[in-house]
Amino acid sequence: MSMRLPTHLSVGALLRRVNDSGGLAVVRASGEPQGGALLILIAEGRGLRAVERMRGLDDRDALVPAGPRADDPAAVEEYWQNRRRRDPDLWVIELDVPQAERFVAETILSH
After folding, report:
1. Matching Pfam families, A to Z (predicted)?
2. Among the four residues 24, 33, 43, 49, which has the most C-beta atoms within 10 Å?
3. Smallest Cα–Cα separation from 14: which of 2, 4, 26?
């Protein structure tokens, strides 16, 4: 059985950690509080890329790349909006902080 925290708690912890470190973390779309999927947009200079929390066969969470290349921010925007239309339970979080994936991994990945 998985010990994953409800999504809304993971999101809250991630927002606090990033904002407390001087970065910017915002909720672009709120999803289902208990078990909604989590898509994270990472701002990198003028680019934007997406990663998603996925459950592996070993019942551990991992971050996997999602969507189009980071050098096309408009395509990334379109990607997450299309995903959200198909899955209203999806959470979409945007992070603008150095080493964003480190914050995500330390905060929301179950070990």
Report:
1. DUF1491
2. 49
3. 26
Domain ranges, ordered by start, for the chain: 7-108
Whether residue 85 is predicted with pLDDT greater than 90 in this model: the reply is: yes
Side chain identity at residue 105, one-letter code: A
Q: Which residue type sits at 72? A: D
Helices (H), 65-108: 73-86, 100-108
pTM greater than the 0.85 cutoff: yes
Output b/e per residue, 34-51; b: 16+ Cβ within 10 A: eebbbbbbbbeeeebbbb
- Interatomic CA distance for residues 37 and 59, integer angstroms: 15
Mean pLDDT value across residues 96-101? 92
Is the domain 7-108 a CATH 3.40.1530.20 member? yes
DSSP three-state, residue 7: helix
Among the ranges given (42-46, 81-85, 95-99), the one the predictor scored with the smallest mean pLDDT? 42-46
